[in-house]
Amino acid sequence: MDDNGIEVGSYTDNLIGTLLAIFGNVLVSISLTIQKYSHVKLAGTKDHRAFYRTKTWWSGFVFTCLGELANFVSYAFAPLAIVAPLNAVSVLTSSILGFIFLRERLKPKDFAKQFGLVFLGYILVIGGAYLLVAFGPNSHEKLIAANIVKHLVGWPVLLYLLLEIITFCLLLYFYKRRKANYLVIILLLVALLGSVTVLTVKAVSGMLVLTIEGTMQLNYPIFSVMFVCMVASAIFQAGFLSQACKLHDSSLVASVNYILSTFFAVLAGAVFYLEFINEDILHICMFLLGSAVCFLGVFLITKTKKKARIFEPCVTLNMNNGVPTIHDKGLVIQPDYSGSFSYGTLVNNNGVTPAPLPVHLETPPLGPGSSDASQGHPGIKRD
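RESULT FIELD:
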C-alpha cells in the first residue's frame, strides 16, 4: 500500500467485485423478466387482481433487491471502470430471456436473417466484457473517510465537478427553457447525474463494508454527505430517464444511455478515485477497446430488438376530438426484453408490453339530418 492508501495488484478484491457485479446484473434481468411475465399473464386472463397481489411479481421483486444489493456491494471491491461497463451483462441476459419467451416459429433462414445481428451483439458484449475486465485498472483503494475527503478537496476533482455543474446547468436551461427535448440532451443530463451517483455509491458502499469489517466509518460527516447526494442524484436521474422514455424509442434510449452513462462513470472514477494512475498505456488502450466493443454490442442488441418486435401487439392512437382510440392488430403478446437498470447506467425498464384489447367499434347514432346523406353510401345499412 502506498501513501495514498492504494493497494496495487489487489486481484482478489477485483475478482470479488467483478463476480458480484455480473451476478447482480443477471439477477436483476431475471427479476424484470419474471415481473413482466406476471403482468402479461394477468393481462391475458380474466384475473382482475392487481399485479402486486401475485406471488410471481413479488418473487421478481425479491430477485431485484438481491441483484441491486450485489451491485451495490461490488462497488466497494472493484473500480468503477470495471463495474460500470458490466451493466452490458444485464442487456445481454434480458435479451436471451426474451428469446426464451419468444413463441414465434420461424424458419431457420428467416430466424438467422432477423436475429443474426443480435447474436453478433452477444459475441461483442462477451468479448468486450472480457477485455475490459482483463485489462481494467487493478488498483483498489480502501475508502476510509480520510481518503474520500482528500480526493474531494483535490483540484482535479473540484475542476471536474465545476465543469460538470456548468454543463448540467446549460443542458437544463436548453431542456427546460428552450424546450429542447432532444434525446442526447436528456440522456446527457442522466449521465451527468449518473456519474455523481456512482461516485457516491462507491463511497457509501466502501465505508459500509469497512464498518462491517470492524473499522467504524458511519460517524464521519462525509458519509452523510455522500449518502444524501447518492439518494438525490438517483431520484433526479430516474426522473429525467422517465422523460426520455416517454418522448423517444425505448431501445434507442437503452443503447445511448448505456454508452453515455458508462463513459461518464469511467471518467468520474478516473478523476475522483485515480483508478488509472498506475496503469500503462497498453492496458488503457485495451480497456478502451473492450469498452467500445461492449458499446457496439449493446447497440446491435437493442436496435435489432426494435426491428424484431413482430410478436408485440401493434397499437396506434388516433386522436378524435382529444379522445384516444385504440386499434389493435390482434398479434400475439410477448414480454419485451429491454435492459434493466443499475447505478449510474439506468436503462429503460418501464415497458410492460400492453395486452391486446378487444375493441368494439359501434356506429354512432345517425341524426335526423344524416338519413339522407346515407343514401349515397350503400355500405351503410338502414333499418
